[in-house]
């Protein structure tokens, strides 16, 4: 499959899984669902990624990367769910992308990036209706999730570089580490579901749809797409979130919501990330010429 197709799969499941999770909140609890999501994903990854072997064979720098990615996945997922408990999915999804544009502005200070950031911030303010803006706790969790989403993009690209199978084996190791971080956070709530086969299967389904299918698809796309191209395609995700929230959660967007989502999408599409020589798709290996032999920092 071409990398753009993998991104399409990721775009759908990034919000289909969380929408299923929202339906489970009343039965299990927010932290319990987050625990089941990461636990089931780590369990699914383990047989074919051998996470502990990957960690044992890694050098010190790679281990640090895996621990960072694992901690990011654990805390990001918990913050995402705590935000979804209080706010519409379209708002939480839109806030994820303000940080990516801010990072682009920091790395490449241009009028274009400044305009892109202004568009995205304006879109978020349009989405924050008076009803939602009073929920400062929900907005705080959404802001934390957005900041960690930036870290996930950066660390995910690093993990995709040089790993076999597009970095999927490193992703499995990071997910096992994420389970260690989330273990004490949601275990007490998750225990409530253990007496029901249906709830356990639903929790596994959330993990499969939220953390296995989209994250594998991300790695397969990241390993073959330049970072700038991947960042541009992220513009599709706010609209995907709004569509899935409408279909699964009956969160029908208003005209104001559609305007806000459109502004965020324009901002994401317009921003220009800093050029990167890593994390980009590479042509088949050829004998390098004199210029290609220069080692870049």
Automatic annotation (TrEMBL):
This is EamA domain-containing protein. It comes from Mesorhizobium alhagi CCNWXJ12-2. Residues 137-269 form the EamA domain. It holds the Pfam family EamA. It comes from the Bacteria. GO terms for cellular component: membrane. The chain crosses the membrane at residues 20-44, 64-83, 89-107, 114-132, 138-155, 167-187, 193-216, 228-250. Residues 274-297 are annotated as: Disordered. Keywords: Membrane, Transmembrane, Transmembrane helix.
């Amino acid at each position: 499959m071409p990398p753009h197709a993998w991104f399409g799969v990721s775009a759908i499941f990034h919000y289909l899984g969380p929408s299923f999770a929202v339906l489970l909140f009343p039965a299990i609890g927010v932290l319990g669902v987050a625990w089941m999501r990461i636990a089931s994903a780590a369990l699914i990854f383990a047989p074919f990624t051998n996470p502990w072997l990957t960690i044992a064979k890694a050098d010190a720098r790679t281990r640090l990367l895996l621990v960072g990615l694992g901690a990011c996945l654990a805390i990001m997922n918990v913050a995402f769910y705590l935000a979804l408990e209080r706010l519409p999915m379209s708002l939480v999804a839109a806030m994820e992308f303000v940080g990516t544009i801010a990072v682009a502005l920091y790395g490449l200070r241009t009028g274009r990036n400044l305009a892109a950031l202004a568009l995205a911030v304006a879109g978020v303010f349009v989405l924050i209706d008076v009803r939602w803006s009073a929920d400062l706790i929900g907005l705080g969790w959404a802001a934390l999730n957005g900041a960690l989403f930036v870290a996930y993009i950066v660390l995910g690209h690093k993990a995709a570089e040089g790993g076999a199978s597009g970095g999927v084996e490193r992703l499995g190791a990071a997910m096992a580490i994420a389970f260690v971080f989330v273990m004490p956070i949601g275990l007490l709530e998750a225990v409530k579901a253990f007496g029901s086969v249906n709830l356990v299967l639903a929790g596994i389904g959330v993990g499969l749809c939220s953390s296995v299918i989209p994250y594998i698809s991300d790695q397969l796309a990241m390993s073959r797409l330049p970072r700038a191209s991947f960042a541009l395609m992220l513009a599709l995700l706010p609209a995907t979130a709004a569509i899935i929230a409408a279909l699964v959660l009956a969160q029908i967007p208003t005209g104001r919501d559609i305007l806000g989502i459109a502004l965020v999408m324009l901002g994401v599409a317009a921003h220009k990330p800093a050029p990167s020589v890593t994390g980009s798709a590479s042509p088949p290996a050829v004998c390098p010429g004199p210029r290609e032999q220069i080692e870049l920092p």
